[in-house]
């Protein structure tokens, strides 16, 4: 299933007449490998550009993403009338060359004149396809007396991509290997031997030099100039030859 790949796209620059759209080229390399269940398939065997038809290869039945895009020119010149007229443009997917999938049309008639008449239309669907079935894009004939000629459309693309193979639903998945219980060896905990500390020896004699006890220093004296404050009490005159001092511990 994982070895399958299928995706094709056709493109044409212009298209006018009603009927199945043919394509000038592909948006992908036609040398790209297409594989279904591991088998390589030629690109031309899957998508015929001249006929504009995609065909499901053998073993390719499943769900497909189908998409189309058209730039519609809905106000074109009518030679028979010698004037421009609005022309309705409509496309449908065509199954097996005859069945139109009217549930998913591309349609537009919006365009008031030749200056504003280009409409980008697109449509994508998911469709179940069987082996050998085909899909194409068909332009519907919408001509009438007022617009006897078909509209000129541009840049038409038609793409088909495999999403899921039906074969994937019938595949029996291999039984996964059975799980076996892990076998563990017996293990018994053994406590390590106790750690025995050595005897702590008594402290020896001090090796520091003998020192005398510290003596208290005299109280610090703070010198004040008594001329700067009224709270300063000078000592009695004639008692010292030192400058006037003030002690915070004075009675």
Throw out a few tags for this protein:
251 residues; mainly beta; 6-stranded antiparallel sheet; 5-stranded antiparallel sheet; 0% helix; elongated
Which ranges are low-confidence, i.e. pLDDT below 50, for 5 or more consecutive residues?
none
Task: Based on Cα principal axes, name the global outline.
Answer: elongated
The number of distinct helices, counting runs of at least 4 residues, comes to 0
Give, in order, the helices and strands.
EEEEEEEEEEEEEEE
- Structural class by sheet pairing and helices: mainly beta
The main pleated sheet reads as:
6 strands, antiparallel
User: What is the typical, i.e. mean, pLDDT?
Assistant: 77
Number of strands: 15
* Beginning-to-end CA distance, first to last residue: 112 Å
- Share of residues in helices: under 10%
Strand fraction: 35-45%
Cα gyration radius (Å): 52 Å
Structure description:
- It contains no helices and 15 strands.
- It is an all-beta fold and 251 residues long.
- 0% of the residues lie in helices and 37% in strands.
- The strands form four sheets. Strands 2, 6, 7, 11, 12 and 14 form a six-stranded antiparallel sheet that branches.
- The chain is elongated, with a radius of gyration of 52 Å.
- The mean pLDDT is 77.
